[in-house]
Every structure is written in C-alpha cells, then in structure tokens.
Amino acid sequence: MAKISDVQIRAWIKAGERFEGRADGGGLYLRYRAGDSVPTWRFRYKFAGKPRVMNIGSYGALSLANAREEARRLFAQVALGHDVAGEKQTRKAEALAQMEQEKNALRVSELAAEYFTRQIMGRWKHPDIVRRRIDKDINPCIGHLQVEDVKPRHIDDMLQKIVARGAPTIANDVLRWVRRMFDYAIKRHALEVNPAGAFDIADAGGQEQSRERWLTRGELSQFFQAMHTAKGFSRENELTMKLILALCCRKMELCGAQWAEFDLEGAIWHLPAERVKNGDAIDIPLPPPAVQWLQELQDLSGGSRWVLPARKMQNRMIPHVQESTLPCALAKVRREMPGVTNFTIHDFRRTARTHLAALGVDPMVAERCLNHRIRGVEGIYNRHKYFDERRHALELWAALLVALEHGNEYNVTPIKQVNQS
To answer: Fewer CB within 10 Å: N-end or C-end of the chain?
Structure first.
C-alpha cells in the first residue's frame, strides 16, 4: 500500500478535495470530509472481531511523522489486548466526571464562609473574632483544599505554624473553631469524619495560664515616651492606647465604637450591651484628658461615624479599625523599650486595676471601672452603679497617666492619703 505524503496532503487541502479516508498503512488514515476545517488522523483496528476506530489528532497539530508514531504505539497496545478506543472513552468520561466533581466540590474556604454566615453572624456578640481566625489562620493553610481532602496532618500543620509564631492561645481558638466548622460540615452531609475530631488543646497551644503582666509606673513612663519616638506609630494609635488605658475598656469596645455612643459635652460614653463581653451596658465617665483625646480623634476621623475608621489598606468589609491593627502598632513601640518584659494590650486592664488599687480606690469601685460584675450576694442585691465614684477614680487614674507622661507623677495624691488628712 502506497504511503501518503505531506505534499499530497497540502495539495488536497489547497484544492479543497474532500474524502472519507486516505490510508497510510498500519491502521492509520486521514479523513477530510465536507464540513471539516482541517483533515483528521484516525486509527482503525479490530477488537474481539469487531471493527473499531478512533480519532488521534488533526493534521497540523499532529504531523504525519507523529501520527505514524502514535499509530504504531496504538497498534502495539491492541496486540497486547487493549481496546484503545474504549479505554480512551473511559478516560475521557472519568476526566469529565472529575471536572464536574471538582466544580461542585466544597472547599474549606467556602465551608468557612457558609459556617460564619449561618452559625456566627447574628448569633455571636463579637463575630469579628471568628472571622479573623478564618481569614488569618484557617484559609491561608487549608482554605484551598476540598473538605473531604482535609486530613489530620493538615490540621496539625496549621496548629503548629500558629504555635511556632508564639501564639498558643490563638492555636487553641483555631482548633475549637475548625472542630466546630467540620462538625457543621457533617451535619450538612458534606463530610463523614471530622479531621480535627481527635485533637485537644494539648495538640495545639496547651493549657492556658492566666496572665499576670502589668506595667509599673516606670514602665508606663517608658511606654509614653516610646510612643513618641517609635517609627511608623501614628497619633491615632497613641490616642487609642491612652484611651484604652484611661477608660479600662477592652480594645474592641473602642475599635468598634461610634461617635453616637459619646456625649463629649456631658463627658460620658454610653457603651451598649451588644458590644460588651459580659453583655452589661455601662455608662463610662470620661475624665478631662480622655475628652481631649477623643476630641482630637474626632478631628482625625474625617467626619466618619466611627471613632476609629478603617485605614486605607484594611479590609473594607470592616468599616472600623480591626483588632489586629493595635497589636501590630504596639510591636513598633515595644522595639523602643529594650529590657522591658513583653506586654500586650490585654495587660492594660490589669495595669489599670492594679494602679487603681494603689491609688486607694475602693475595690468595689475599681471592679466596676472595669465593668466587672459584683460577685455573690452583694452582686445580686447591690444595684448601685457607682457612677460618681467611678468618675472620681478614673479622673485620678487619668491624672496619673498624664503625670507619668510628663514626668511629674508625685503630684498625684492617692485617695487614702486624702481621707487621712
């Protein structure tokens, strides 16, 4: 049988000559029917006594030499008992099925978004806490994986990365949330086994210890000076740190605050229950320095309804400063305080409570300054808000902070000394 050549093929194409098949031998032939844009290479053979045929490529994409080589390979496979056309169809069907499966597969990032929307939003007082763990720790590690592909080793890798960066408490939080998230996936029949189910806190950050760190007067003085010299530390951050210290509040209570909550003329912050950890609304008296700091923040906020509006580079889904902004800013200040033991913003409330005691503030009043509930029978029957007492205590505390910043702390007289005189 005569072989076909490239010259012949190009002549047929140029002349527009159409045909059902021109054989080259070894089962290989070229087809160029009416309606075909280019000729097609095909391979025919017999399997179990029945004729079979399959496409192996178009002319141009597959040269004559390559088509012959492919035909020889297929012929050898047939000789070994393979139905090459049938196997090709099977592979194609499997590939299509895999593509469809992957298209419809639920990825961890999608599960996390659904879990957050259905189980956290509207149910949790501080949903941003969960959202941050999803965005910062869960999605970057396993968000790209399909839910059914997540193995315990993936969970362990994620937890150990968090522990390695010195955040054992966050590792414990992430473990709790991924365990609940995969339990939710089981409920919606997207998963049968929870890959985080066998883990406990010993596999994450370990047993959490109560922190004892607080800042002495000397350390507070250093802190104020470091805020003035730290590179990249903004005036907004400085005012925010001072307010958290002076008002004994939690950082997210201030980060999420709106100007509508403040009566600067009356010097009161009406902190609503839905933004407080223990669910107790409280009116916080504002000492004069705090009012001045807030007025400056109001000028800096550019007409925003938020006391601390989101910065330009932050996630615009959150209209106010995120909780993670302040620890990053504090890290810049700590670099200016060599020799001082590490401290966090969470230690500010312990610092305030300690200094309130040193200033002679009644323990009941000091606890209410931190919006702590009064325990036991006293808490049940004593409904007094201690507002005036708290105002005096916070004025004394704010005066000490200002004095420490300017190096004249001895001008602040503790309450107990006033009572003795």
So the answer is: C
Q: Per CATH, which fold does 108-203 belong to?
A: DNA polymerase; domain 1 (1.10.150)
Judge whether 372 and 352 are in contact, CB under 8 Å.
no
The closest of 415, 301, 300, 327 to 369, measured between CA atoms, is 415
| Mean of the per-residue pLDDT values of the chain | 88
Give 99 or 34, the one with higher predicted confidence: 34
Average pLDDT over residues 241-255: 93
Question: What is the DSSP code string of 63-83?
Answer: -HHHHHHHHHHHHHHHHTT--
> What is the C-alpha to C-alpha distance for residues 74 and 352, in angstroms, rounded to an integer?
81
Cα separation, 195 vs 217, whole angstroms: 48
CATH number corresponding to 217-420? 1.10.443.10
SS3 letters across 123-185? CCCCHHHHHHHHHHHHHHHHCCCEHHHCCHHHHHHHHHHHHHCCCHHHHHHHHHHHHHHHHHH
Domain positions in the chain: 6-104, 108-203, 217-420
CB 157 within 8 A of CB 141: yes
pTM for the whole thing? 0.60
Q: How confident is the model over 331-363, as pLDDT tens digits?
A: 999 999 998 998 999 899 999 999 999 999 999
- What would the CATH number be for the domain defined by 6-104? 3.30.160.390
**Residue 213 per-residue DSSP state:** -
CA-wise closest residue to 347 among 325, 370, 364, 363: 370
pLDDT tens figures, 93-115: 777 766 666 555 789 999 999 99
Mean pLDDT of 24-48: 92
**Overall average pLDDT of the 145-156 stretch:** 93
List the structure tokens of 379: 């808490």
